[in-house]
Each structure stands twice: as structure tokens, then as C-alpha cells.
Design goal:
alpha/beta, TIM Barrel, eight-stranded parallel beta barrel, two-stranded antiparallel sheet, 9 helices, 10 strands
């Protein structure tokens, strides 16, 4: 099936199917306009730093809100990536939370479906810190600040490179939601079925992307069929419009390829 015409996968699943705001080589609004009639949700990937910011101006927010209303579209907001909310220095933690709060404040008129947040480690790998007690406590303090302005269930903590069990206590204690990133699970060698069994009931957003030659964020043709079958089967039980499945890719060709894969599961 060729999706380069007027094909759409809107309202074809018991969940909201989405992709990112970086599909065509253009700014935020052209991407949203391009995608609005094709998917149910768009992940707005926003940056807020001293070097670069794509935080939308108020007029852009109003246009995004208008497009969402006309196309039955929702937005998930990916909070800034350059944050260290468990850092040893309180000043670094505060700056990181402040970045997130600026994005949350600016995008609040969009009534986002969810906010995606990373709990970055002090280091990469399966142990995020050499000082786990301090690192966890730092994230607890940061989460408490975020929850002054965000409902707990709307804050989704994403699976990264370390075992999710290391942060499950934070997620559980504060009633946060899970962002289950299946691409990361595949890339770092975790067991997809085990993570689905353990976390799906608390998952609000699933990120889907393929892995090829040790690189993630490829199209869904590179996701094992068994993984896709399992996700669609599990989300097909009951009404799951309370979940978003994001094809987390950043290329138009990958989008068409991925839509072709997902069309096999559409109703």
C-alpha cells in the first residue's frame, strides 16, 4: 500500500496512533499541517537551551490548538532532552526543572495528552549513577516541583538505557505514568514481553521504532513482527483511546514505510 497519496490511519485503532513533529524538513507548523489528517497524535519535540530553542510563540500555540480542534488531533509534549534532574548539584537540577516548566507553561493551552520526560543518568549504561541513592533522591525532588503544575498521570517517564526497575519506585510513589519505549528495549537487549507484562497497565504512551545495525529510530519494518503483534493484541482488549502509540521516527520515507506496516493491523 502506498501512503504518498491521501492515505490516513486516523481513527483506525483502539489507541491513538501518532508520530513526531520532525517528519518533513520544515518547522513545527508545516509538519503538524502535513500530519494532521494522517495520525491521531503528534509528539512535539521541543528544545529549550541557551544555544537553541524551538519553543513555539503564543501565536503558533493558537494555530496548533486550532489544527487540533479541526482534525481531532492531540499532542504529546516531549520535554527538553538536555536536562539532568538527578544531578548532584542542586543548581543543575533546578535549571533542568526550570527548562521543563517553561515548556509546560507555554504548551498548556494545547491540553497535552501527556508530557514525556527523561530521567537521564550521570552516565550511560545499565547503571545510571555510581551514587544511586543520591541520584534517585534528586529525581524525587525534581518530580515534586513538576507536579505543582502537571497532573501525575500526565507525566510519563520514558524507558531509556538502564532497567526501568531502577526508577519504578519514583514512578509508583508519585503516581506517574510510564512511557514504554520499545525501540530502547530492543536496542539495549531487554525482553519486550517481560516489560509489556510488567508495565503496560501503567503505560500511557508507547514509543515504537525499529533498530538496524545498532541504531534506533528506524521505521517499523525493523520492529520484530512478534513485538508488533503483541502490542496491538494487548491494546485491542477494551477501550484504549487513553493510550498513544507514537511511531518515533524523523523522516518522511520512514513514516510511509511505518504506516504501511501499521495498516496491516488497522480495522
Amino acid at each position: 500500500m502506498n501512503f504518498k497519496g491521501d492515505w490516513s490511519l486516523k481513527n483506525r485503532f483502539p489507541f491513538r496512533l501518532g508520530t513526531t513533529s520532525y517528519i518533513i524538513p520544515a518547522d513545527l507548523l508545516p509538519n503538524v499541517g502535513f500530519l494532521a489528517d494522517k495520525v491521531d497524535d503528534i509528539e512535539l519535540v521541543l528544545f529549550e537551551s541557551d544555544e537553541f530553542s524551538n519553543l513555539p510563540e503564543a501565536v503558533t500555540i493558537e494555530r496548533l490548538k486550532d489544527i487540533a480542534g479541526r482534525f481531532d488531533l492531540t499532542y504529546t509534549i516531549h520535554l527538553p532532552l538536555d536536562t539532568l534532574m538527578g544531578h548532584a548539584k542542586a543548581s543543575v537540577r533546578q535549571q533542568s526543572v526550570d527548562k521543563c516548566l517553561r515548556v509546560i507553561e507555554r504548551t498548556a493551552p494545547l491540553s497535552p495528552f501527556a508530557y514525556i520526560v527523561h530521567f537521564h543518568g550521570d552516565q550511560r549504561g545499565k547503571s545510571p549513577s555510581l551514587e544511586m541513592e543520591r541520584w534517585v533522591e534528586g529525581h524525587r525532588q525534581s518530580v515534586e516541583r513538576l507536579l505543582r503544575v502537571v497532573d501525575a498521570q500526565d507525566l510519563c517517564v520514558e524507558m531509556l538505557d538502564y532497567p526501568y526497575e531502577l526508577i519504578d519506585g519514583i514512578v509508583t510513589d508519585y503516581g506517574l505514568s510510564v512511557c514504554l519505549d520499545m525501540g530502547h528495549i530492543l536496542l539495549y537487549g531487554y525482553a519486550p514481553e517481560e516489560y509489556l507484562d510488567r508495565y503496560l497497565s501503567r503505560t500511557r504512551v508507547i514509543h515504537l521504532h525499529g533498530v538496524e545495525v545498532g541504531q534506533d529510530h528506524h521505521g517499523l519494518a525493523f520492529v520484530p513482527a512478534g513485538v508488533l503483534n503483541s502490542i496491538v493484541d494487548r491494546l485491542g482488549n477494551g477501550s484504549n483511546k487513553t493510550r498513544v502509540v507514537t511511531m518515533e521516527i524523523f523522516d518522511e520515507g520512514m513514516l510511509y514505510q511505518s504506516m504501511d506496516v501499521m495498516s496491516r493491523y488497522a480495522s
